Structure formats: C-alpha cells, structure tokens
Fold each of these.
Amino acid sequence: MKMNVDDEVYAVDNVFLGPPRMTFPWRARYQAYAVGGILTVLMLIVLSVLDLMGFWPIVYGLIIVIGLTRKAGQYLTHDVNLRAFAITFWNEVRAPRSAKVQPLTAPMSFDIRRQAHLS
C-alpha cells in the first residue's frame, strides 16, 4: 500500500527543464538523462565493435535507447533510485538457476502405477 506524504520536500519531482528562458519541450528527470547517457555510450560502443557506424544504425540505436530509457523510467522512482535498480538487475542476472530442466510432457502410461485401495 502506498501512502501519500505531506512533506513538500519529499514530494518534489527532480525534473530538469533546461536552461532559463530556453526550456526543453519535454519533462525528464535527472535519472532519465543519466540512464539515457549511459545507454547511448553503450550503444555507440556496440556499434563500433560491430563496425556499423553508419547514419541509419545510429538512428535506430538512438530510437532503441529512447525506448529503453522510457521503460527504465517506469521503474525508477524516488523510492527506487538508479543504484538500487542496477543492483537488483545485477542480482537477478547472477542468481543461481537450477541446471535440471523439467520435462513438459505427460508421463507415459507404463510409468503410472495404480495403488491398491485397502478397504
């Protein structure tokens, strides 16, 4: 359950609108700019390694970066900051998984044994 707070300082949304008298036409939190910057650098590194440094790969990469930044922005709040989000992601990726894969098929008829009902 999420409770509304009455603290004015706590309820402030840290939003960068741009320099005075020259604001951006969109609202974005500081965390969104940090996530977008990190993802842009990673995208440029991947494109340079794959030798795809043309105009259209960069345009498509930036569109993907914007989408991923918006998706990450849905999870980043004043309660869950960028550091907590990164630690949670890292722990989920490194969590131990069971090596045994369970079959999704029904058991064969010769594997089923009937139990004798004792009366």
Note: Helices lie at 30-49, 55-75, 82-94.
Amino acid sequence: MIRYCLPLILVFFWNCTPDTKTNDGFINETAPSLMDTIPAKHNYDSLVVKNKDILPFSPTVKKITALAEKKEGEKFTLYFDVTTQTKAFVKIITEDELANIRLNQVITPDQESDGPFGKEAEFPLYQGGTYQLVFAESLMQGNPFQGKFKVEIELK
C-alpha cells in the first residue's frame, strides 16, 4: 500500500508547484523586480545650503534637514516647490537656544506672505508652485544673529 501511495504523493506535489514559466514558455530570470524601478531614497539629513538655494523636495523626499550659515543683518531665504503636499512643518535649531533667529516670512507662489513665526512653525500649502522661507532676526529682541543654524523642513 505504501509502495503505491508514495508515487501518488510525489505526483501530487509535483503538479502543485507554482508555474514559473512566462507566456513565451521559458523562465524569465532576468526581469527586473518592482524594487528595481523605484528610485533610491536620498538621505538629506545634513544638506548644506546657501542663501537663496532651492531645496530638492520630490515625491520620494518629504523631509530635509538643512545646515545653513547666516551673516549678521542678512535675510536668509530658502525656496522649495510644491505639487501635492498640503502642509509644511519648519523647525530652527541653534546651539544657543536664545539665539535671535526665526522664520520671519513664508511667501507663497502668488507672492502673498505670512508671518512672523517663531523657531517652530506649521502652515498650510494652499497652492502649487515655489514657496519662499525667509529667516531673519526679530528686531524687537536682542542682538542680531550671525552663525550656523539647522532647519528641519517636512512636507505632508
């Protein structure tokens, strides 16, 4: 009895294995996988930026940490393009927590402006196009800021 069942079991398992042949009748081992078609995610944990730089947001890059250096009395501006995002989060980090720097203005693609904000801000992105973030001192507070700072920007 076992002698007859063993071949039947082997035939059953042989027929239940998945078919790996393509329509052409051969196994396609060189076809790219789905993961090969997705671009690698860029790491923007420490992107060094200069005044008036454009931040490289894209469908795969939604958060950037930018390292910047501001001169005394200068307005430091960063640009970014928006297509589908609806909200932005901005956080300024300095070595000295009392440093006199803030997000002064957000200028929309139609040149409307909003602000001033503090060291952290959340604001809606109502339209597609190029937005401007203007960083500067508060004229009502202490000494003008000069030096390095970090800006974390996330689009959602």
Note: The chain is about 10% helix and 35% strand.
